[in-house]
Design brief:
single chain; alpha/beta
């Protein structure tokens, strides 16, 4: 399940908690919430995906949240055609720009881009149940198991 909630986090959490025991987890798309909200989603088995918003100058609160989250539950995304990272903010987002978002998340965790790519690749496989199906296949450039 992939969920994008905007200005409705409390209601989203209420609904997810109601169905919690039957949920298989999923992705909180374009996560931009608080640390408490992040932990609530993590407790429900969700991964948190960050968009270009994390690169915006006024997004320091979001960066503080991202810095404190476990690497094994983080993802990056473009949200194309919206939410392009700096310096493309306000322009049409492109998949290639996800590297800027990943670079910022890597910086926040004191990792190289390659190390963060390793974590997010493995997280992608895990959240979508692809670990066994893709075992032995080539990983993206710069990513190793």
């Amino acid at each position: 399940m992939v969920i994008h909630t905007r200005e409705a986090t409390s209601a989203t959490l209420e609904i997810l908690r109601e169905f919690g025991p039957r949920l298989a987890g999923g992705v909180m798309h374009c996560f931009s919430g608080s640390l408490d909200e992040a932990h609530a989603f993590l407790d429900l088995g969700f991964f948190l995906s960050f968009s270009g918003v994390i690169t915006y100058p006024k997004a320091e609160p979001l960066r503080q949240v991202a810095r404190r989250l476990p690497l094994d539950r983080l993802l990056v995304e473009t949200d194309c055609p919206y939410l392009a990272p700096q310096p493309w903010r306000g322009k049409r987002n492109e998949p290639a720009y996800v590297a800027a978002t990943a670079r910022e998340l890597a910086r926040l965790h004191g990792l190289s881009l390659e190390e963060l790519a390793h974590h997010t690749w493995n997280n992608t496989l895990a959240v979508f149940g692809l670990n066994n199906r893709l075992a032995g296949r080539e990983q993206p450039s710069g990513v190793s198991s």
